[in-house]
Amino acid sequence: MTTTYAALLRGINVGGAKKLPMAELRTLMAGLGYDSVRTYLQSGQAVFACDHGDEDSLAAELTGAIEKQFGFSVDVIVRDHAYLAAIADACPFPAAELEAKQLHVTYFSAPVDADRFAAIDQQSFLPEEFRLGDRALYLYAPDGLGRSKLAEQLAKPRVNKGLIATSRNWNTVLKLVEMTAAE
User: Fold this and answer.
1) Helix count and strand count (H, E) for the chain
2) Which residue in 86, 107, 133, 143 has its CB near the most CB atoms, within 10 A?
3) 40 and 175 in contact (C-beta within 8 Å)?
4) What is the C-alpha to C-alpha distance for residues 13 and 43, in angstroms, rounded to an integer?
5) Is the Cβ–Cβ distance between 9 and 79 less than 8 Å?
6) pLDDT in tens, 109-127
7) Where are the alpha helices (DSSP H) in 71-169?
8) Are 45 and 8 in contact (CB under 8 A)?
9) Contacts of 174 (CB under 8 A, 6+ apart)
10) pLDDT one-digit tens code per residue, 23-70
11) Rg of the Cα trace of the chain?
């Protein structure tokens, strides 16, 4: 059975580092046998259909192929449409009332529990807030991610140790749900 996935690449095409042209990424992915490969923006989102593997094996396959082809390592998380739609539907914040720059989802490579974030005093960051979801964290940052002090704390290595974590703004979250929907 063919499944449609989104590949979320972490830290490419940011500040001149890890340049990965989207046309070359699409070609690479097609060469791996992925169908209907499309990219979204330059910041590392690719949608594809595939009838083999699972999320973890596809992420590992794509990570290895990028390193072989481009000479640098990129962390990749692969998620299917059902998961992406469930994350959007489960948003604990009033997404329809917020600007996309105020709401972000950090996708994790594995489940996380509240203990990992226990050292963060959420009250001291209000009105910024975060909530945990299924292998995801929702961040409400009313002044945007670039000015968020809470986002700085959430990105600390002690919080994300042993995980791949990559964030997307709400517009991208919704666009990936749309792009992975059955056509």
Assistant:
1) 6, 8
2) 107
3) yes
4) 6
5) no
6) 999 999 999 999 999 999 9
7) 81-89, 149-154, 157-160
8) yes
9) 88
10) 999 999 999 999 999 999 877 899 999 998 899 999 999 999 999 999
11) 16
